[in-house]
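Dear Dr. K.,

Following up on our conversation at the group meeting, I've run the structure prediction for Fumarylpyruvate hydrolase from Rhodovulum euryhalinum. I'm pasting the input sequence below exactly as I used it, so you can double-check it against your construct before we proceed with anything downstream. Let me know if the numbering doesn't match what you have in your notebook.
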Amino acid sequence: MPRYVIDPLPAAAIPVAGNGALFPVRRVYCIGRNYAAHAQEMGHDPDREPPFFFQKNADNLDPSGVFPYPPGTNEVHHEVELAVALQSGGADIPAGRALDHVHGYAVALDMTRRDLQGEAKRLGRPWEIGKAFERSAPIGPLVPAAAIGHPDRGRIMLSVNGTVRQEGDLGQMIWTLPEIIAHLSAHFTLAAGDVILTGTPAGVGPVRPGDRIEAAIEGVGTLAVTVV
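The predicted structure tokens came back this morning:
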């Protein structure tokens, strides 16, 4: 008798820079409003409030370099983020040991159906319709921490059609990566294959079919995406 009643789908995966290997993805966690200026532009207090999280699906991560404009929306926004891939996990991980669990880093986008997210917020409903749609997380190659260390400073930027829209520094995160991992692991059991998106700087805005998005994080890499 077959073990599965239907054929299992291939695991979602991110290419690793330089060697052709793949990093299999288990879960995707995203922290909201983790740069003060972005919190302000979204109409929220930039002070250090307790962190909050939402999730995307593993197969939302898309390394293709193409972003199909999604249905059901007239307002899709770009958000550039540092992605962090875990090689191990656990529960109640202390911040001082958190980076031991990191395999590597990548440049990613948290594409957002802002109109649908805004309506969900207004009604007090979950955000998945605005955040977790197909191919909503374009991502670049994963760069191992063994090669670049653990970046906690450096320019993060995004341009659309050559015009810079988002620009900040990793050092402006309200909650640092070790704090993010520690807080997440107090509420979820983290594991190898988990990916964390760590927030976006100010300057989020709309894209349209035909736009070319270019994003970069100092010391990590670049990502180019065409909206179709």
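Two things stood out to me. The chain has a mean pLDDT of 94. Residues 13-227 form a domain with the Fumarylacetoacetate hydrolase; domain 2 fold (CATH 3.90.850.10).

Best regards,
J.T.
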